[in-house]
Amino acid sequence: MSATGPTGHVFRPGDEGYDAERTGFNLAVDHRPAYVVGAGGSEDVVGAVRRAADRGLGIGVLATGHGPSVPAGEDTVLITTGRMTGVTVDPGARTARVGAGARWHHVIEATAPYGLAPLNGSSPHVGAVGYTLGGGAGLLGRRYGYAADHVRSLDLVPADGTPRTVTADTCPSLFWALRGAGKGNFGVVTAMEIALFPVARLYGGGLYFPAGLCADALHAWAEWTRDLPEEMASSVLLMAYPDVPEVPGPLRGHHVTHLRIAWSGPPAEGEPLVAPLRAVGTPLLDTVSDMPYRDVGAIHHEPTASAAAHDRGTLLTGLPPAAVDTLLATAGPAARAPFVTELRHFGGAYARPPRVPNAVGHRTAAFSLYTGADPAAGDAPDRLHVSMRPWSGGSFLNFLGSGETEASRLPAAFDPGDYARLTELKRTYDPANVFRVNHNIPPGGALSP
To answer: Which residue intervals define the domain FAD-binding PCMH-type in the entry (predicted)?
Structure first.
C-alpha cells in the first residue's frame, strides 16, 4: 500500500498502486522511479522536491502523460499532479487559475458558462499546464496566438524547494523560459493563471474523404490555406481505420483523409469558407456544423484510451504542390504507411511576437507535420520526415516524441541564441540538473546525465 505523509501519497516498487501511478497516457515510456509522489497540493510538491534533492535523486513530473520524453529510472522520483485539478474562473477579468493536473476539459467546463474559452489543444483529455508550458498550438491559435503567449503568472516549485510566483514583473527571465521551454526543466509548476477569450461557439467538425479523393483533398486543402482569415483553423489527418465495431460505420476499414475545421468568426461566414473543401467530392462523413465551444473535442475526435505510440513532429516552412506529392508518396493510401500523419495550419497570430516575450521558437512556421506510430512500425515514420526536409524549419516542443533520438532534437525547437540562453538560465535555477526526466536542457557548460 502507499504511504501518506508530508510529501503526499508515496508509492514504491511493489506497493499497490505503484504501477498505476507511474503510468501515463502514452505507454511508449515505461517509468520505473525509486518512488512516486502523488501530490494533492503544492505543499506535497514542495516536500517531494526537497526530499528528492536531499537524497540526490533526479525529478520528473507526470500529469497526464500525453507528452512523454524519457523514462524515470531508479535514481529518480516521479511527482504526479493528476489530483490537482482545480479551476477558478474570474469572468470579469477573463482569466482562469488552473491547477497542475487539470485537463483541458476541466477548464472548458468551468469557462463555457461565461461564454469564454481557453487556448486549449485539440484534445480536451490533455493536461492544460504541460501543454501550455510547451507552447500550446490549438484551435484558436491562428486568431490569438500560442497558449504560452497568454499566461499571466505561474506558481513554481524550483530545485531549491522554495515556492514562488513567477510573472513578467517578479522574474522576467524565468517567466520568459517557462513559457515555451518549461516542461519540467526549471521546476514543478503547481498552478497557472491564463487569459480567456470570448468564444462561445464554433463552426467546426470534419470532412472524411475516401482513399480515392486523398490526393485531391490534400492538394485542395494546401491551396485553400494560402488565403484564409485568422479565425479559421484547420488540419488534416491521414489514417487507415481498422475494420472494428468501435469505428463509425462509414469509416470502418477505409483509408481516410480527415479535414478538420474550426471557424471561430461570425457563424454565417463559416459555411461559404468551407465550400471549396466540400467541392472536392462526396465525403464518407461530413460533421461540420455550428457547435458550442464546449464540444470542441469532437472536431479532432482524438483517442482517450492509453496506448504506446512513438510520436515525432517537424515544422514546415510551406506546403507547395511538390511537398504534398512527397507526403502522398510516403503516407498516402498507396503507401500503406504503418503510422498516422497529421498536418496543422499555423500562421496568423502564431507568427506575431507576444506582448511579453517568451521562448516559443520558429514563429514563421507555416505548418506542422506530426506522425504517430505503434513501436512496431520501426523507422517508417522517420522516412517521411526525412523526405520532407526540403520544407522543414525546426521542431516544436509539444510535438517532440519520446526517446533519446527525439531528445537530441530539442535545440531545434528554439530560435538561434535562445537555446544557449536557456542553458544559462538552467545553470542559474537548477545547476545540479535535478529536473532531468524530460527533454532535458542541461545547465550551461554541462552535459545531461
So the answer is: 29-199
Taken in order 267, 367, 185, 146, the sign of the CA dihedral is negative
Q: How far apart are CA 64 and CA 57, in angstroms?
A: 22
Looking at residue 448, its pLDDT comes to 38
Q: What is the largest CA-CA distance in the chain?
A: 64
- Given a cut of 90, whether residue 376 has pLDDT beyond it is no
Assigned C-alpha cell, 74 = 531508479
Q: Which three cell numbers stand for residue 47?
A: 516536500
- Among 356, 427, 411, CA closest to 194: 356
pLDDT in tens, 139-188: 999 999 999 999 999 999 999 999 999 999 999 999 999 999 999 999 99
- In this structure, are residues 145 and 349 in contact, taking their beta carbons and an 8 Å threshold? yes
Rounded to whole angstroms, how far apart are CA atoms 56 and 50?
Answer: 10
Q: Which three cell numbers stand for residue 336?
A: 500503406
pLDDT in tens, 329-368: 999 999 999 999 999 999 999 999 999 999 999 999 999 9
Long-range contacts of 274-278 (CB under 8 A, 24+ apart): 274/203, 274/207, 276/220, 276/224, 277/207, 277/217, 277/220, 277/221, 277/224, 278/207
CA–CA distances in Å: residue 397 to residues 9, 46, 66, 335? 30, 26, 13, 28
pTM here?
Answer: 0.95
| Residue whose entry in the numeric block shows the C-alpha cell 507526470 | 62
Residue 5 pLDDT exceeds 80: no
> Cα separation of 291 and 242, whole Å?
28
Of 81, 94, 90, 1, residue with least CA distance to 41:
81
The dihedrals phi and psi of 335, each to the nearest 5 degrees, come to -75, -20
Q: Which of 269, 288, 95 is nearest to 198 (CA)?
A: 95
- Mutual angle of helices 214-224 and 321-331, in 10-degree steps: 150
The half-sphere exposure of 164 on its side-chain side, counting CA atoms within 13 A, is 16
Element (H, E) at 436: strand 435-437
List, for residues 182-219, the tens digit of each pLDDT value: 999 999 999 999 999 999 999 999 999 999 999 999 99
With cut-offs at 50, 70 and 90, classify the pLDDT of residue 416: confident
